[in-house]
Amino acid sequence: AAWRRRPAARRAVDRGGARAGRRTPGIIAAARVQAYLAADRRDLADTLMGHLLRAYVNDTSIARAVLQLADRDRASGDVARERPRYEALLRGFPEAPATAAARFRLGLVAYMTGERDTALALVAGAARRDSLGALGLGPRYWEARMRFERGDSAAVATLRGIAARAPIAFYGVRARELLGDSTFISDSAPPLPRLGSFPPARARERIRLLTNLGFDLEARAEVLGWTLDSTTSPWVLLAAAAAAAEAGYARESIALGDAARARAGMVLGVTRALFPYAYRGVIESEAAELCVDPLLLAAIVRQESRFDPRAVSRVGARGLSQIMPPTGQEMTTRTGIGPWDVGLLFVPDFNLHLGARYVRDRMRQDSFPVYALLASYNAGPSRVGRWRTWPEYRDPDLFAERVSITETRDYVRTVYASYVWYRHAYGQPLVPPPAELLSAPQP
Predict the structure, then answer these.
(1) Which of these, 108, 127, 123, lies nearest to 391 by C-alpha position?
(2) b/e string for 397-408 if b means 16 or more Cβ within 10 A?
(3) How far is CA 50 from CA 59, 77, 100, in A?
(4) 114 in the Ramachandran plot: left (φ > 0), alpha (ψ -120 to 50) or beta?
């Protein structure tokens, strides 16, 4: 089903059902619903689900299948069909794990349709029942946001707690923005190294020399070695992280940043280690040529390739900006920038030029605000163009929460949070600030 091999999915479910007999009827029935969905036969899935809701009242397998049907409705923008699914789960499966997610989603639907009291009650209920944190910070953030909008002073403390608990994650970043808090980076300094300890300058110089001599593997090993020593001074970690970032070892820089954050907090050096700016000159040059924010492009590259110019994804996207070869060929031909060769996607200047041009096109041609632009980078502009009709399109939090593709939803959150941190770590961008980019243009 995941690979859209629809007839094979149905055959596999039928064979599994024949072998299982009466032992696992709920699981088999739920799998049959999935097979119908994979075959785009929602009518059959709906009919079967109506029977299953009556026949298997306490079966959590059926509850999960209902949630998958709701996902399909959400993907098609059919809120009128999506909402009753969640309500059916609350009635028939009140204690099922899937119902916790349904309660949270139903609260967001109620908020989206203007039922603010109902929305708060549902989201608060989801947060209260999610004692193990299976739903992440979402319910707690949304409860705090809804209370904050009502003027509840207690919500301020909750939002600050979320920001402190998850400073570099989407909810932590949005909590700070909601409060108007610009103190992302601490102005305190890490404790000085002990007298006679290993000098930070030497750590940086060792990595720089190994890199210059072409010993990449040894340089990377040197970098990672510092993260394994719990006694290492934060100053040494930050010096090694700076050298790693300068050499283009973004993954290693991020690992050093994680280690340093535990010891020094979110000081400027830690922030720059966690959000390295390799190929800065190339990124800023291409961004200036196409009038896009270089820090937005850096945030995209951090997520796409971790600044590895030779990166190849499982679907064949290549280079720093992870450009698919057909997309690269089409853009090269359309813009007339030279004869096409797929190997060009591994050239940083060429790859970043295409990535910056894609960002510029989405902002100018499609008028996407930044969160929709990020969704289009992952899911494609035509799909995001259809999402414009969603009622949640004009609320960045709702949009990021209700994007129907899990990978895209995570991508939007992660890259947006990175973009905000890049802005704080490397200064003001060359384009309007996030408050303007965050709001969708009026029709």
Answers:
(1) 108
(2) bbbbbbbbeeeb
(3) 14, 21, 21
(4) left
The two tokens of residue 298 are 């850096």
3-state secondary structure of 228: coil
Q: What angle do CA 161, 166, 171 make, to 5 degrees?
A: 85
Per-residue DSSP letter, 232: -
DSSP-derived letter for residue 392 is G
Instruction: For residue 380, give the H/E element and its range.
Output: none
Q: For residue range 307-347, list pLDDT tens digits in order.
A: 999 999 999 999 999 999 999 999 999 988 878 999 999 99
CA atoms within 13 A on the CB side of 95: 3
As a whole number of angstroms, the distance between CA 119 and CA 417 comes to 25
List beta partners, residue 323.
Answer: 318
Distance (Å, whole) CA 290 – CA 407 = 28
Task: Name, in order, each residue with C-beta under 8 angstroms of 433's C-beta and a sequence gap of 6 or more.
Answer: none
What's the predicted TM-score (pTM) here? 0.88
DSSP assigned state of 391: G
Beta bridge partners of 312: 318
